[in-house]
Amino acid sequence: MRFVIIGAGRVGLRTARVLREEGHDIVLVELDRDRVKRAREADFDVVEGDGSREEVLVDAGIEAADALGALTADLNVNFAACMIGKHFGCRTVLRVDEDYREEVYQKYAKEVDEIVYPERLGAIGAKNALLGGSIRAIADIAQHLQVILVTVTEESPMNGYSIEEVALPANARVLAFGKKDGPMGIPLADDSLETGDRVAVLADFDVLNDVRQLLVGDEVVTAAGGA
Fold first, then answer.
1. What is the DSSP letter of 134?
2. Shortest CA distance to 72 belongs to which of 2, 15, 1, 3?
3. Which whole number is the average pLDDT over 32-61?
4. Among 122, 126, 199, 136, which Cα is nearest to 168's?
5. Which DSSP helix (H) or strand (E) runs through 124?
6. Domain 2-116 class in CATH
7. What are the beta bridge partners of residue 145?
8. So where are the chain's domains?
């Protein structure tokens, strides 16, 4: 696929590296000359200019791009770039660095395909490192929803039970299931939970501890504290 990424700073450059490693074509758009130089030294195709201007994005090949990632630290630039990308039929991803009021968030969310919060993603990684044990946060889906990946332990109250028998709280549901060292897939009612198996769960923040207690047992409650 072909991607145009606005911003060759920390977030933009790391995203570009990951996409390039997966074999995709990347063009970076950056106004800062030092960042342009650094990105070119890393063998990226870079268009120097303001990513909120249509002519700059046309030079970057927006007409043939599959998606545009507006990943600068300037929300106004990011939003303008996304609107241009939308005009050219691209999937649009908008970077936001702060949690705005709900009405402001909704304004942007309605206009783009996806919003990403780099700081929030970094916080999830830090929380995982602090918690350790058999549970990992994958993503914050909404203000009060999170996807977590749970590894079943010997202490799990549900060890030996089937997916159908797992009585999760009302505000939680199983999204995917994988046997130990196997791929994740659609959970089946008769899949049995055994030590080392993994379960992806969508849960409201208010019931996360209940989900942890049910699928992992006392081990995670002790490790997580009040998280």
1. T
2. 15
3. 96
4. 199
5. helix 118-131
6. alpha beta
7. 142, 204
8. 2-116, 121-216
- Cα first-last separation, the chain: 39
Q: Which of 19-33, 96-110, 162-176, 178-192 has the lowest mean pLDDT?
A: 96-110
pLDDT at 141 (0 to 100) = 58
Phi-psi region of 122 (alpha: psi -120 to 50; beta: other; left: phi over 0): alpha
Q: Please, which residues have CB within 8 angstroms of residue 192's CB and are 6 or more apart in sequence?
A: 160, 161, 162, 163
How many CA atoms within 13 Å lie on the side-chain side of 81?
Answer: 31
Closest alpha carbon to 191 in 169, 170, 174: 174
Residue 165 token pair: 């028998």
Whether the model pTM is above 0.85 = no
DSSP 8-state secondary structure symbol assigned to residue 107: H
pLDDT of residue 224: 33
Please tell me the CATH code under which domain 121-216 is placed.
3.30.70.1450
Report pLDDT digits (tens) over 48-78. Answer: 999 999 999 999 999 999 999 999 989 889 9
